[in-house]
């Protein structure tokens, strides 16, 4: 081999940056980006994509009880916002201001155990003091009287007559969660 052949080096080939797409001369054989700034942005973008994939995988493996719990949290938050400033459905005392753990409960007229198909029915759930809901066993008679006053006898009787069972699907529960989250967001905007 001649000296001339050994000294002749080809200029490095241009590569496209994996982040911004601009052409650059790589200094290292495995270099994928044109600058440290692009390297940092590429790593951040990859981590973000990875987090999104994990989020999608976690959502896909949620069970029906998990989804019911999430939908119930969104529903109860909406009920608390809707009934803030109104009196307790049972005793008529003013509902306390929201605090740690919620100032009052979103109490169901027909319990979620006996009428789970009415769990997300807004007519079946109203603001109730913790004393009435938890320690007063729901105070069903007083609740019914307050409910008649608030929504009318026809709607109360419709709730009492509704006994058709319902089996929740994952898609229904995700939709319910989104609906009540958006309703709660609208109420918060209206209150500001």
What does this protein structure show overall?
- The chain is mainly α.
- The chain folds into two domains: 15-60, no CATH class; 64-191, no CATH class.
- It has helices at 3-7, 36-60, 64-83, 130-135, 140-151, 153-161, 170-191, and strands at 15-16, 23-24, 105-108, 125-128.
- The mean pLDDT is 89.
How is this fold's topology laid out?
Elements: H1 3-7, E1 15-16, E2 23-24, H2 36-60, H3 64-83, E3 105-108, E4 125-128, H4 130-135, H5 140-151, H6 153-161, H7 170-191
Antiparallel strand pairs: 1-2, 3-4
Q: What oligomeric state do these chains adopt?
A: single chain
* Strand proportion: 5-15%
State the major sheet. 2 strands, antiparallel
What general form does the structure show? elongated
Order of helices and strands: HEEHHEEHHHH
Percent of residues in helices comes to 40-55%
Features:
single chain, 4 strands, mainly alpha, two-stranded antiparallel ribbon, 192 residues
